[in-house]
Specification:
With 333 residues, the protein is α/β, with parallel strands linked by helices. It has 14 helices and eleven strands. It has helices at residues 16-24, 44-51, 73-78, 89-97, 141-152, 170-176, 188-193, 222-227, 229-248, 250-261, 265-272, 280-286, 296-309, 326-332, and strands at residues 33-37, 62-66, 84-88, 102-111, 115-120, 133-136, 161-164, 181-185, 201-206, 215-221, 275-277. The longest helix is centred in the last third of the chain and has 20 residues, at 229-248. It is globular. Residues 1-29 form the signal peptide.
Amino acid sequence: MGIIVRTHILRALVALPLAIVGFSATANASPIVKIGVVNWIGYGPLYVAEKLDLFDKYGVKVKLVNFSDGALLAGATASNAVNASTLTYDQVIPAVATGLPIKVVMPIDYSDGADAIVATDSIKNVSDFKGNKVAYNFGTPSEFLLAYALKQSHLGFHDITKVNIPAGEVPSVLASGATPIGVTWQPHVSQILSLDGGKKFHVVYSSKDAPGLISDTLAFNTNFIQSNPQQVRGVIEGYIAGMRYMQNHYNEAIAIIAKAIHVSPASAAAQYAGVKNIPLRNMEAVFTNSKSTLSYYTSGNIISKIQLKDKDISHIPATPLTFDDGFVKGLAK
């Protein structure tokens, strides 16, 4: 698909058996660590590490299993159809809240401008949202970005009129004039900015203003973590080796990633500009309680309150229950 794949959080917990029947029979028997993924530029180090067999150096064999629907990843991991998966943190929270046995072992990336609130030129800042219609896909990262932006300007959802629109349809809704403000992600953001010769719309607020709020993680089945800690560590080390390769051989890495997500190298490079992979030296901070939106404590608090209000979860799980930071801490020493 080659673009950001976002799905409603609750769909991660349903419709699983039929979708993964092809994986479940062999998941436990295979010595290969299976990681469920969707096409997303931020998983570049994983694509590179698999293609170049970088995991082998750390004593682990890895197979990336592509899912067309990212909503199935949490359930697939919990059922051992795959041993781990790449989940957005807003998927992790409801999974843990419903008792699924998964934990984040490593942060992968965060959106750094790839998600944005776009508006007509008459809307100068977030304060101008008051009394206006805002189009976005409810229950997706767009809602979390909007909630945070409103809070920073001392506003709330009660100050706007919410319009539920699929992310891919936000450009057409804004183009029609039905709403002056929309929240979506790339490549839809660029599509909106190009409307009317690029003179009508602009970015008012983006994920660059809230680094870490919209983030991807590597989450393992908790039983697998307990039974195979060396393999979990090896996966993380191989991923880090993939990041190093990207830093030292950028063009070659982009070519690998482009092929993996079925886009041109130029498109892959453009998409990669909107995300940030988190280096090992900064990973521990993600697991630390701080006011930064890079911290799961802060981003999780924002996300879970929205999910609770929307009745996507029945309670807010304690943040430490969503992750196991031991591997990252051990490697960072």
